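Design request, tokens follow.
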């Protein structure tokens, strides 16, 4: 890739990650909220931004970043994603434990909550699978990780889109669209379904 195009790609990625977070951080809806609630909400935005970065790293789609180094960064970014999700849920627990209990029991009346819980468990399961990768067959690892990530991204995007919160409609829609496109591109490029064909 030409150097100018590579620079533009990185600048576009930085903007895609930073703008939704900046919009959320300066939202007037946070004016009367406590610091724990604000941190929890911003952690959710960070988690969504990391979901855009993860497939780009896994599939080697970022210019100037060797595939091996990209996969190493992918692992650390995965740890950051898990921590962001934990911070998001923990902050909401501190501010309103009954709401979190209802969410975990799939008893919440809000339509976006079950999707967030589904995404949370899928993220945790994908991280656990990554931690156990050395003990798993390549087929189990590739298919399981890909399926869990697809569930996590789908749940997170629906969760975000249904929430009327601190992210503006435009920045949220753009981030969700980019995340969906990056995930679909990475899954298509990595072709995990070939494992099924080999088994057949």
């Amino acid at each position: 890739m030409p150097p100018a195009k590579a620079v533009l790609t990185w600048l576009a990625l930085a903007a895609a990650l930073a703008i939704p977070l900046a919009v959320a951080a300066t939202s007037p809806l946070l004016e009367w909220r406590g610091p724990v609630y604000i941190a929890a909400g911003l952690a959710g935005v960070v988690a969504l931004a990391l979901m855009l970065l993860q497939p780009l790293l896994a599939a080697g789609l970022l210019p100037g970043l060797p595939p091996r180094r990209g996969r190493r960064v992918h692992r650390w970014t995965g740890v950051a994603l898990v921590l962001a999700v934990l911070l998001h849920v923990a902050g909401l627990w501190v501010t309103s434990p009954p709401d979190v209990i209802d969410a975990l029991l799939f008893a919440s009346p809000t339509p976006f909550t079950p999707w967030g819980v589904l995404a949370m468990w899928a993220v945790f399961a994908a991280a656990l699978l990554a931690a156990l990768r050395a003990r798993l067959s390549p087929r189990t690892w590739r298919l399981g990780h890909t399926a869990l990530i697809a569930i996590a991204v789908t749940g997170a995007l629906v969760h975000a889109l249904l929430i009327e919160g601190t992210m503006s409609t435009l920045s949220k829609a753009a981030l969700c669209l980019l995340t969906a496109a990056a995930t679909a591109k990475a899954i298509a490029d990595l072709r995990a379904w070939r494992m099924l064909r080999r088994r057949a």
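Comment from the thread starter after seeing the answer: thanks! Residues 14 and 98 are 37 Å apart (CA to CA).
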